[in-house]
Amino acid sequence: MRLFQRLTRMLWNSVVGKLWATIMLLVAVVLIILGVFLLQYIDIWFNNRDDAHDIKILFIVVAIIGFLLSTFFAFFLSAKIQQPLLQLKNAADSVSQGNYSTRVDIRSTDEIGELAKTFNHMTEQLDKLIHDLNHEKNHLTSILRSMGDSVITFDAAGQVILTNPSGHLLINQWSGLKVDWQDDLSGSSLTFESVPMPLRELYQTVIEKGHDLSEKVHVHTNVWSVVMAPLQSNGVVRGAVAVIRNVTEEHKLEKLRRDFVANISHEIRTPLSMLQGYSEALLDDIVASPEEGKELVQVIHDESLRMGRLVNDFLDIARMEAGHVEMNFHEIDLRHVVKRVHRKFQVYAKERGVRMHVEIPDEPLTMLEADEDRLEQVLTNLLDNALRHTPAGKSITIAGQNANVNGESFIQITVRDEGQGIPVEDVPYVFERFYKADKARKRGASSGTGLGLAIVKNLIDLHKGRIVVESTVGVGTSFTLLLPVDYHQ
Predict the structure, then answer these.
(1) How far apart are CA 426 and CA 470, in angstroms?
(2) Whole-prediction pTM
(3) Residue 465: what are its φ and ψ, rounded to 5°?
């Protein structure tokens, strides 16, 4: 019984089965009509019972032949109709599984042949479309992968749906910020917990307002520039894409630029005021004696020299930070540089009553690649700084030696003074531009520009060296230079 039901269901679910059943029904209807209207007249028309019986037998045989012919016709239709349809069905299944190169091999001029041609054309166009989409996807992926900026795409629920490698690393870094930002956002109604905390407020605003927004986000010591745009479809916001760039260096440079302009304006204002004031005193002829006039002229001369030093130092450090300093590297012996700088300051030190000592070894202090003039400028700035802060009767020592640090060869140069020293809280900032530890000292011959140590630090960095300062208030200050023997080590 079940087998019969299964066969019946299989035949009814196929085109040929339905067509065969229809033909069988038509044949049965015809035969029934003939039987109803003709069989009752056979006995009347034919007096011979044997002839009537033969005609009935013939009628039954014709009915059986009709059923057999219709069944044969059904199998014929199966070969002509069902098999091409099965090929089309199997090809469609193959395409649905991603095999877009599938084609059907049906060559006929009827409707099924036209259907096969249309199907092949459709799969060809679909294959080309998928290929183009994959090409565009790979192209977009390559662009995203090569971008230095972080690109993160969110859906409407705040889930990350696309990101480049830089964005993936950034999400991992920001995933642990929830606790740190919890206090700042404790009173807000922000949702979208999958969005990183630094982007959550901006993301919610973009989703609600539906237009581009940009903002600078501060995360610990870093500053990030975030540009976020909504993803819209038929006027409905379905997510947002964020482009994030680390602008910490640009932010620092902008701050340095503002501070630099403010500081240099402040530094130049005082000598300009003094030049203007003393020159007006001379022009107004209010000088009581030639000695006073000479003193005013000396002040004007000193301030003009100070402005000249300030401008030169300003140009030097500006070129260094812009990377436009020309370095002349060659092999040098630092002992010659130390001796030359010592001779240059010896007379000036005697005039101020300061003793100068040189401690250098007998063996050479050789650097394979160094700029001799720039290193002389470094030692000149350090000694000038030491002399300005060392009182009479005290001493300054410049020493040099070969050193080995972590298996690498260095030349160590030390400049020690017995001056007033630098407070502990000021030591980390002595290499910043215009920073002066002695904020109360007077301007004059002993006053510097505030750029000397900044220039020293930049020149040492250009030699891939290090500089360390140690100081005790009332005892003295020591600057130690570590310069690599080999520039490439």
Answers:
(1) 11
(2) 0.48
(3) -105, -175
